[in-house]
Here is the input.
Amino acid sequence: MSSGQKKTFIIAEVGQNHNGDMHIARQLIDMAAMPIFDKFNNQPLVSVNAVKFTKRDLTEELSTEAQNRPYHSPHSFGKTYGEHRAFLELSYQQHAELEAYARSKGLGFIETLTSIKTIALLKQVKVDAIKVASRDLTNLPLIDELAGTKKRMIISTGMASEKEIDIAINHIVRHHENLAILHCVSEYPAQYKNINLRSIPYLKEKYPYEIGFSDHSIGIVMAPVAVSMGATIIEKHITLNRQMKGSDHQSSLEPDGLWRMVRDIRNVEIALGQLHKIVPDEVASFKNKLERSIATKKDIEKGQILTVNDLCMLSPGDGLKWNEKDLLIGKKAKHRIPAQTIIYKKDVSNVKTGK
Here is the structure.
């Protein structure tokens, strides 16, 4: 990894996968804080950097009609959609307890705030950043109030056109420019045909802000690929079990998946390397063993003049290369050289020195 390569900031998104249960919420924090050890390289890797929760105020969340709508779903926690949403909400005090617990585990703490009233959470919870959900990128009153806190902001763009992104950014930068933009597809789970990872280098070229990727796809491969394309923030939902009740669990990562994704991201960071072609020192032994050298195609007698028809290429690779064959052609063999034997400069007379 080159010295200029920024480490990826990995956010494990709990969202509301705690199912309204503080015990599950703490277990998910424990999951995010697990150490990442790469057995292949026999070394620890940098783990998840932060967890993210979501705070809603239901008085600013749904219309009366939407709150009272019957919610008949295997993932429902209430008879109506309003009851379902209320069941999943944790109190401000519970969010404060989870922040303290996350920090005790060495994790940063991020909150998605979904309405102006939820900004009150910041009186009890110290956040490293405020997340703006894709659905709220056009909620300019909320954008203005969040930016007015002067806290770092991370905006998701999964539902937004470029014009809508530009308008939101213009509102934020009236207050500050501590901003990151996440490419995102607001589909759960996101189909691969819709992910369009080339948006990442496009956004990096267009905007002077940090660019990341909020991944809603199934599996772990999209996040490491996004890092290889320039994303420096990765956000991914986590769950204890994808079969748990709740609509976000199916597209989330279980502990083993999170471990593998973080491992692969960290190894991609290392593998990106530098912007030129190099042959690592570690390749030398493989080169010597596997590469080809000029060898005899048939028995060569002492004093015989070598011709191109006497030569072939065989391993190992510690001898002359084919572009050096003129160092051998037309020269006399100093001794008998059996077929399929590497020919070295010492084996012939009048060999020029150097390559």
